Amino acid sequence: MAKAVTIAKVVPPPCQNTNLTPEPGNLPLVRAAVLCLINAERSQNGLEPLVSNTHLEEAAESHGREMIADNYFAHVSPAGMTPVDRVRRTGYIPSSEDGYVIGENLAWGTLTLSTPAAIVAAWINSPEHLANILEGSYHETGIDVRPEAPASLAEDTQGALYTQEFGVIVR
């Protein structure tokens, strides 16, 4: 019996709501599903789970809003703002004396390719995105999901835009 309890502690429960299509009313469930899937991948690779951070969420949300409003899809905004700039603006980086490691994953999809399962699977199959997911120094994350994709990409098809910030402050 003790062996079963030990295994249950190591194997996380399956993630819920991974096949939801993002809509305004289910975004908290979609964000939770993304975090669960990311942490399941980290766990399978012997890494600690990421925890949500309000500053990183703020950075992800501001970038997601801007990409929809300005109809673009990129890590660097048309005005030249980078992921580090966005994260710094939230106050996540306490001072210029503190070191940090910051990363960002972006994705968009339409219809069934806009679910948390499809988006996280695409990230896992991309070496650059997987590197962020499996970066052992990251401890915190912020996730934003917009229930639409930039118009120039989705061509009036129902879709979603995902922004995930990763970070750690090194003192």
Largest sheet features: 4 strands, mixed
User: Separation of termini?
Assistant: 43 Å
Stretches with pLDDT under 50, minimum 5 residues: 4-8
Total helical elements: 7
Proportion of β residues? 15-25%
**Computed CA radius of gyration, to the nearest angstrom:** 16 Å
Mean pLDDT value: 93
State the order of secondary-structure elements, H for helix, E for strand. HHEHHEHHEHE
Number of strands: 4
Helix content: 40-55%
Q: What is the structural class?
A: alpha+beta
Shape: globular
Tell me what the structure shows.
Mean pLDDT is 93; it is low at 4-8. 42% of the residues lie in helices and 19% in strands. Helix 2 runs parallel beside helix 5. The chain has a four-stranded mixed beta sheet, with helices on both faces. It is globular and about 45 Å long. It contains seven helices and four strands, in the order H-H-E-H-H-E-H-H-E-H-E. The chain is of the alpha+beta class.
